[in-house]
Amino acid sequence: PDIASRRWLAEKFEACGLIPRWDPAANLFGLPPQSGQPVLIGSHSDTQPEGGWLDGAYGVILALEVARTSQESGGPPVAVVSFQDEESAFMPLSGSRYFSRYLDLDTLYDLTNAAGQRYGDEATALPEVQGAEPLETNHFSHFLEAHIEQGPVLDLANETIGVVETIVGSRQFEVVIEGQQNHAGTTPMSLRRDAVTGFSAFVSALEQRYTAAATPRSVWTIGRVQVHPNAPSIVPGSVSCSVQMRDGALNQLDLMCDITRDTAQEIAEARNLKISSIQNKSVEPVDMDERVINAFCEAANLNAPGRWRRMPSG
Ligand SMILES: [Zn+2]
User: Fold this and answer.
1) Fewer Cβ in 10 A, N or C end of the chain?
2) Ligand 1 center to residue 200 CA distance, Å?
C-alpha cells in the first residue's frame, strides 16, 4: 500500500505538469518543469498504526495542491516530496535522512525491518528506483512542511494555525536505583534499603524541581519503569526507569539534565541507595528560518486573525 500510494501520487504529479522523480531511497519528488530553484514542500505518506488519516498524508496532498495552483496560475516553481519511511519501519526518518545526507546509501540499504527485509533489496526491486539518481538538497531553496497538530494545544484553544518556530530537542536518561533486596516479612523497616520508596522520592523531587524550573514549553516523562524482582513479598532490590525531557531551548535542556543528576545524587545519599543516571539519548533543538516564520505569521494574521500562534513542534 505504501508504494501503491506513491505510484498514485506520481500519476497526480504528471496530471498537473510536475515530473515524477524517485531517488535511490524511494523518496518520490514531483519536480516543476520550469527553470529556477523551486521551494520544496511535502511530508510523508506512511503513518503509525491508527495514526489517523491526516498524519503525513495531509502535508503531501497540501503540497500537491500548492504546486498545482502554482502551475495553473504561473506562480513560482514549487516541488513536492513524499519521504520514504518517516515512521521508522527501518529507522526514524530514514528517507529524509538520506536526502539530507545524514545517512549514506550503503548504511540505508543495509537497514532491516521487523520482518527481516533489507531496505536495499526492497528499494531496488522497484523499477522506478533502479538506476535512480540522488537529488541534492541545494536543488531547492527551502523546505516547508504542513503537519496535523500532534498535541492538544491548538485544538483546546480553538485555533487553526500553529507556526512552528523550533523543533524541540530532547534528552533521555536511564536511571538505575539500587537498594537491598530482602524478605518482606523479616526485614525491619529501619534496616531496609527499598528501591521503590527511593524511586518514589526521586520522582516526587523531580516533579517539584522540574515544575519550578520549567518554561511553558518544557515537558518531561518517566515513561518506563521496571522493578526487580517485582514480587509482593520481597523488598525491591532495584528499579530502573527512563527519564525524558523536551524543550526548544538548549540551556533549558541543560538545566533539566543538571536537576536530574543532582536529584539522583541527593536521594541516593539521603536513603543509602546507589543511583546511577546515564544520559543515553540526545536530540538537539533546531530553530526554523526567521524569514519563513515571519512570512507564515503574516499569512496567518490575514487568513486566521486571532486564531493562530507561534509554537514549537512536538
Ligand atoms: Zn507525521
Assistant:
1) N
2) 35
List the CATH code of the domain at 169-283. Answer: 3.30.70.360
For ligand 1, the distance from its centroid to the CA atom of residue 45, given in whole angstroms, is 8
Q: How far is the CA of 58 from the centre of ligand 1 (A)?
A: 9
The superfamily (CATH) of domain 2-148 is Zn peptidases (3.40.630.10)
What is the whole-number distance in angstroms between the Cα of residue 55 and the centre of ligand 1? Answer: 5
Tens of pLDDT along the chain (314 residues) come to 788 999 999 999 999 999 999 999 999 999 999 999 999 999 998 888 777 888 899 999 999 999 999 999 999 999 999 999 888 889 889 999 999 999 999 999 999 999 999 999 999 999 999 999 999 999 999 999 999 988 899 999 999 999 999 999 999 999 999 999 999 999 999 999 999 999 999 999 999 999 999 998 899 999 999 999 999 999 999 999 999 999 999 999 999 999 999 999 999 999 999 999 999 989 999 999 999 999 999 999 999 999 999 999 87
Residue boundaries of the structural domains of the chain? 2-148, 169-283
The environment of the single-atom ion ligand 1, i.e. residues with CB closer than 5 A, is 55-56
